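tool_call: predict_structure(chain=1)
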Amino acid sequence: MVITALDVGGTSIKAAVLDGDLKTLATSREPTAKGADGHAVADQVARMVAELGHDPAAVGVVVPGIVDENAGIARFSANLDWRDVPLRALLAERLGLPVALGHDVRSGGLAEFRVGAGRGCTEAAFVAVGTGIAAALLVDGQLYSGGGLAGELGHVDVGNQLKCGCGAVGCMEMIASASAVARRYTELTGEPADGAESVVLAAQNGDERAKVVVDEAVDGLARGLRILATLLAPEVVVLGGGLFTTGEYLLDAVRGQLRLTFQREPELRLAELGPDASRYGAGLLALDLLKP
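tool_result:
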């Protein structure tokens, strides 16, 4: 049995044919087609599935934004310029196969919970810290989606005075996302940052200006995780995304800033599946469709 899994991003689509053990049999990647009604992406996905071959038994597709998995509708995606796109139906019509539709971060969390750093947990969170910040929430052993709206951790107020693109002020992702770290380093120094990883490494190597930016990000992350721990009491929080590619340095810094009192202190772990987590999650969603 094989399935095809696709991670649709605002810039590119990453596709893979996987077997029942998530072993990769074939891969492809290409720029994401544009179109507000979703038809261009549906056509592209159908073509990529056909070109990869292997006669898949099901297809899993994950996308960013607000995704109602139960209805099969991509409710909103700023990166793809979508509103209320019935993507699962569009794909099923073109593919003639069972199709699972999921949210990219929740699906990445599903993969980390089942086969990655969070395996074995029943109460956990996967926090992806990249261009933005979002969380996948595992509650009583089940992913919680809140109709596609749950997990927007990047938009909790952590006390800064910056206006976010969402319209609010104080959002966590304005100081703690990977994109914010790079942007704020450039604002502070006048020098372009080669991504958040370079800023974290510079701070680790004693650059005081980088340390200011990273300390600010760590404070924001700790405040957000404190809210998460207070509301959901996860056993484990898996941290991934571009900001955590530098490893234990940042993890230790966040751990030291949590400052919990009565709350259960979650074990902080680095994600294991890296940038392929969402694609593996798409594969798991497809495999779930085939279970008796």
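agent: The first helix runs from residue 39 to 52. Proceeding to next step.
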